[in-house]
């Protein structure tokens, strides 16, 4: 089916023109910067380029289906703050969303963005060249043929580049699809968006207290996301959620390999189950099967975020134990993270509504306070040594600290 003749796709197109998503007031850019995954610049540096790409190299970014621009603004702002050269190309079919991104960028005085109104499916004809990094967040699952669209993005990706993806996940969205089904009769897709929204609002006002949506606290689009949020959650004409296995199958089908699921530890069921016999069984599974188990056990995953690369590309990461490697924090400064470690040396970390305990060595506190994105591991170790920590304990302690904090997407390394 071509995109133009598909009634769901026509309705999707009308949706985002009528209700640009997510609902954003450009003036709010004076107050705050939204940061998140995928596409935080530090995540791109680490999970896409393995901490091995020079920050001097210009970065060409495509935000495919940019919506009102949360990711585009975040990347462009982070690049501008760090004097990183390159550009962020915002692509979306809806003119209304691009207007919002432009206004947001203007409030921030950002000049490293450009705007293209068009379809991902038309990328091969848009003459935009190839990109080092592509963000495609919350888009694929709305498209008539996600594999086809992902293949087109692959064609726009440079060798050695990567894509940050987000797709919906079914278990954590329990309640959503029941209401979408009901609303498909009460607010059919051929009705105009305003009429559909009115029906959804009326239904929400009278929603029986037994409706699963009331119990689901994994997202709040219908509560705090305004008209655009409610529409996108309950009236989206095409919304295909992926279990982690189905998502991985999609990536295999198109020829991508997973660099990381975010956060990696979220997909490790050992953080969910203390029973030693079950943990032994978990140990026997590969990461993909562990991820399936984690998704089923936790039940709260409403999205999957992944950094992927072309299957044919070589990929390796900076050595976290090389003395000249430079540890850096994702966003939260080391000393702030230290403040969150309990006296028992456990770090409470939230995977959405679920808080798990991340065990750390006692001396992790000393390490974290020294990570400033400038000092090398060797320099950090010298300081730790001078504080009296026996030399033979330092590397094992760093390994434990790094493995745990990398797995919750907090600490990365880059080669110098
Ligand atoms: C749910 S919004 C996600 C927006 C943004 N990526 C975010 O995460 O906030 C989906 C966006 O994809 C855009 N879109 C849908 N189909 C598209 C296509 N074929 N080509 C380009 N953009 C498309 C819509 O117009 C909409 O702005």
UniProtKB/TrEMBL annotation:
Endpoints of the signal sequence: none
Pfam families: Methyltransf_31
Residue ranges of the region described as Disordered: 1-30
Top-level lineage group: Bacteria
Annotated ranges, domain Methyltransferase: 59-163
GO biological process: methylation
Molecular function per GO: methyltransferase activity
Alphabetized UniProt keyword annotations: Methyltransferase, Transferase
Record EC number: 2.1.-.-
Record flagged with keyword Transport: no
Descriptive protein name: Class I SAM-dependent methyltransferase
């Amino acid at each position: 089916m071509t995109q133009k003749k598909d009634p769901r796709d026509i309705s999707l197109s009308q949706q985002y023109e009528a209700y640009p998503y997510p609902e954003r007031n450009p003036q709010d850019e004076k107050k705050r910067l939204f940061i998140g995954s995928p596409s935080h610049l530090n995540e791109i540096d680490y999970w896409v380029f393995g901490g091995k790409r020079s920050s001097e190299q210009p970065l060409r970014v495509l935000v495919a289906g940019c919506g009102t621009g949360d990711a585009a603004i975040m990347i462009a702002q982070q690049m501008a703050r760090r004097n990183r050269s390159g550009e962020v190309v915002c692509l979306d079919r809806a003119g209304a969303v691009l207007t919002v991104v432009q206004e947001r960028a203007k409030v921030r005085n950002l000049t490293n963005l450009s705007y293209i109104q068009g379809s991902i499916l038309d990328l091969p004809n848009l003459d935009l060249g190839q990109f080092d990094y592509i963000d495609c967040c919350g888009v694929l699952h709305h498209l008539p043929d996600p594999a086809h669209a992902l293949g087109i993005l692959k064609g726009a990706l440079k060798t050695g580049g990567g894509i940050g993806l987000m797709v919906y996940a079914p278990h954590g969205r329990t309640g959503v699809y029941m209401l979408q089904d009901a609303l498909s009769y009460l607010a059919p897709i051929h009705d105009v968006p305003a009429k559909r929204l009115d029906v959804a609002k009326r239904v929400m006002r009278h929603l029986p207290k037994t409706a699963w949506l009331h119990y689901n606290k994994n997202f709040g689009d219908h509560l705090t996301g305004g008209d655009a949020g409610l529409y996108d959650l309950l009236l989206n004409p095409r919304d295909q959620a992926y279990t982690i296995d189905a998502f991985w199958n999609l990536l295999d089908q198109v020829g991508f390999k997973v660099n990381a699921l975010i956060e990696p530890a979220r997909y490790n069921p050992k953080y969910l189950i203390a029973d030693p016999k079950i943990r032994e069984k978990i140990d026997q599974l590969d990461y993909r099967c562990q991820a399936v188990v984690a998704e089923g056990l936790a039940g709260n995953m409403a999205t999957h975020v992944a950094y992927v690369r072309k299957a044919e590309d070589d990929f390796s990461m900076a050595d976290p134990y090389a003395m000249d490697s430079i540890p850096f924090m994702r966003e939260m400064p080391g000393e702030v993270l230290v403040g969150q470690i309990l006296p028992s040396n456990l770090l409470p970390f939230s995977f959405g509504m679920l808080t798990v305990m991340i065990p750390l060595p006692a001396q992790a506190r000393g390490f974290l306070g020294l990570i400033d994105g400038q000092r090398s591991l060797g320099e950090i170790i010298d300081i730790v040594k001078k504080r009296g920590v026996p030399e033979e304990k330092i590397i094992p302690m760093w390994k434990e600290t790094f493995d745990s904090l990398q797995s919750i997407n907090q600490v990365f390394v880059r080669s110098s």
